[in-house]
Predict the 3D structure of the following.
Amino acid sequence: MIHRLLAALGLGRNARPAAIPEPLWRSTVAGLPFLAALNREEQGNLKQLAEAFLADKSFTGAGGLVLTDAICVSVAAQGCLPVLNLGLHWYKDWSGVVIYPDEFVIPRQIADETGVVHEYDEVAAGEAWSGGPLILSWRDVLLADEGYNVVIHEFAHKLDMREGEPDGVPPLHPGMNQEHWIEVLDAAYEDFCARVDAGEETWIDPYGAEHPGEFFAVLSETFFTFPEAVRDSYPALYALFVRFYRQDPAARLPYPPALPRRAATAAVPPASRASRTC
Ligand SMILES: [Zn+2]
């Protein structure tokens, strides 16, 4: 099976989609409560999208990671959730996913005010290159939790990058006003930065205060995996996300009884994400 699936998805792009075996699909969904909360029709649509995504993109294991069907299906299923009601063409302008076993190092360059270029290494859990690959740390993918999802985070960056550098303003649908989006996003971002600067414990990952582009990516992963946090913190922005993603994750509640939700008071970001870069 692994050879058939990986041959379809890894050895050549634009292969004919191969069906994800039902047991593998069911175990993937069962391990991710925000996917298990989808209704039967939505899960069927997501499976078809994931199959098409696997056939369309190249997957590469790096740093010694040996890809398995389970890894590729998990990434495809989570990554396709944001475009469940948008369509796979939103991911058409890039070709591949690279997965490391753990955090990876990105060489960076930055010029100071005198023009001197400084080089340094940045450790990251994920990275989305404009027009290039999407890079993930598998260890961080496995840390998926309410409000933390590096896969959705990076895929949201890809949506944002469809109109240049990620700035929190993806291409909006007809009838959506960009000025209004920016106004609502900026107000929420300023409020969020003030809360983080004041040392307030936030429901949303403080990493979102890094930049408006990161705010959009962090809010997107929270929107899909811990929607109440976005809805209750920034209702106007939540309403815009519902229109943009054409999904209302908070309306999927209650989650199945077999998937108990974490107590609200326990929504403290794990230490592992305190220093994340993605
Ligand atoms: Zn990011």
